[in-house]
Amino acid sequence: MDNKTVETISYLARLKLDKDKKDKITKDLENIINFVDELQDINTDDVTPLANPLEKTAPKRKDFVNSKDRKEVFLENSPQSDQDYFIVPKVVE
Amino acid sequence: MSIKYKTLSELKELLEKKDISSFELVEETFKNISSSKTNSFITLNEEVALTKAKEFDQGECEGDLAGLPIAQKDLFCTKNLRTTCGSRILENFIPPYNATVVENLSKAGSICVGKTNMDEFAMGSSNETSYFGAVKNPWDLERVPGGSSGGSAAAVAEGLVCAATGTDTGGSIRQPAALCGITGIKPTYGRASRWGMIAFASSLDQAGAFARNAEDCALLLNHICSHDEKDSTSLSNDKENYLENINNDLKGKKIGIVKEFDISNLSKEVQDSFEQSKKIFESLGANFVEVSMPNIKLSVPTYYVVAPAECSSNLSRFDGVKYGYRAENVNDLEDLYIKSRSEGFGDEVKRRILIGTYVLSAGFYDAYYKKAQQSRRMIKNDFVKAFSEVDVIMSPSSPSSAFKIGSKTEDPIEMYLEDLFTISSNLAGVPAMSIPHGFSKNLPIGLQLIGNYLEESEILNFAHQYQKNTDWHIRNPDSGDNS
């Protein structure tokens, strides 16, 4: 884990790290990765990955609309919106 | 009449006998909260709570928990009541709906007095990562209450409320329950709905309860747990009446002690309490069996791949567009995302998002994420095998009693090891709880009981039988008998 890797993953996560905290976070991340590296030593041949403890697939339900249109309510929570849209900085020149 | 430290059942009885009105109860609760020094609450719900109490007193509301004030962890969405998740990014977020757990408890008649403080997005074991400041342990204000549900645990331990909700992703109910000397339970994964719970790690998160004893936890679970179509991992199995199933004999029951949980390096008091508790269960007729769970030692590293991976994915929704904090003075849309997230999240959340992004990135996915999912299966298999031999598994809840505020913040891994005994239950998805069972350095310590899938009643029964024969759960920060 070096500064360049941290910069790459920070960008992927859309995060910018404070300059004065960058070294500490890089060191922390390196320690954490070293810590979880213990997993590399175990034999997992023929072990099926477990994504959910109950291994349930999402149940199917009848395909009908059961929620109300609450557009106004949700738009109200936006930092900036007009009647129909979330407003963001201009995307297309 | 002082309502401090009264149990849920005691307050329920007082209300039923009309020895106290709900209005008096709620008013007194807010008085106690205002003089508290623990910083347990982020937002209070005074006006609504007092109105609801009046309605109850006028006979307009019914239910198992009618008229009783409780607190909600600030991770559950509460309609028209600010829900921050302990983060700056949700500092002004007011949900337009209730989480299913909140809705269930409200339908049972309980009154939400406020939202409790917590580690930011439930990431932490000390409640120090909250944007709204650290919570202090009511047994010693210089120490942490544990986390992430630290505010809920401290509020119950201090006697501000008789019950509170919590969530547990790696120990976030059991570890603070232990450090605050109260009872806390996390049911089987899928038993309580996650709808309206702000997601951290979706395959591990589970709602649960804090109270002063196991009996009250059973009553709370009766309402917290439900099948919910809105949560695709919600279990459809019939729900038990937990309260009716906690009066069973322990004769012939088998308790597993995990061979690989080495407690010989823990403090003498932690070891002595564990031995004493074993004797109590033996006197109640239970037998102890050593069970080998060779993969349990992989729990913490497995968790610190799986949980950050899911966290990085879940927290990508916070972008400053649809709700939450939005940074000012941005150049373009990408700048808006980056600045809003960088200013809105705290350091621990950023660390976990970065770890998650790293382990999920191309070239590392198989080495970390897939590998962790494989070791997760191995851990689950250990539980399945152990529960073919025993009824419950017993261990300490946490390695030590409450530590000083600031003493573990520099080294994330030291903090992560706080959850050494609790994390494996989340990876496997089994129910688990913590009950008070002694003191170390005059601070409470907890005993963990882990049950088989959907055997919440079993661990609640063990806990209730234990509490009928001990008084650790009755002690409180004012009672002066903390040794």
Short description:
The complex is a heterodimer of chains A (93) and B (483). By secondary structure, chain A is mainly α.
- Please tell me how large the radius of gyration of chain A is: 22 Å
The CATH architecture of chain B can be named as Alpha-Beta Complex
CATH architecture classification of the domain at 1-41 in chain A? Orthogonal Bundle
How far is it from the N-terminal to the C-terminal residue of chain A, by CA?
Answer: 38 Å
Quickly give the structural class of chain A. Answer: mainly alpha
Q: What name does the CATH topology of the domain at 1-41 in chain A carry?
A: Histone, subunit A
Q: What's the CATH first level of chain B?
A: Alpha Beta
**Structural category of chain B:** alpha/beta
Q: Nearest-angstrom radius of gyration of chain B?
A: 21 Å
Helix content of chain B: 25-40%
The SSE order of chain B reads: HHEHEHEHEHEEHEHEHHHHEHHEEH
Description of the structure:
The complex is a heterodimer of chains A (93) and B (483). By secondary structure, chain A is mostly helical. Chain A has a domain at 1-41: Histone, subunit A (Orthogonal Bundle), CATH 1.10.20. Chain A is built from three helices and no strands. Chain A has helices spanning 3-12, 19-36, 71-76. The longest helix of chain A has 18 residues, at 19-36. Chain B is α/β, with parallel strands linked by helices. Chain B has one domain (1-483): Amidase signature (AS) enzymes (Alpha-Beta Complex), CATH 3.90.1300.10. Helix content of chain B is 36%, strand content 13%. An eight-stranded mixed beta sheet of chain B has the order 4-6-5-10-11-9-7-8, with helices on both faces. A three-stranded mixed beta sheet of chain B has the order 1-3-2, sandwiched between helices. In chain B, β2, α4 (100-107) and β3 (111-116) form a beta-alpha-beta unit. The longest helix of chain B is centred in the last third of the chain and has 22 residues, at 365-386. Chain B is globular and about 70 Å long. At the A-B interface, α1, α2 and α3 of A face α9, α10, α11, α12 and α13 of B.
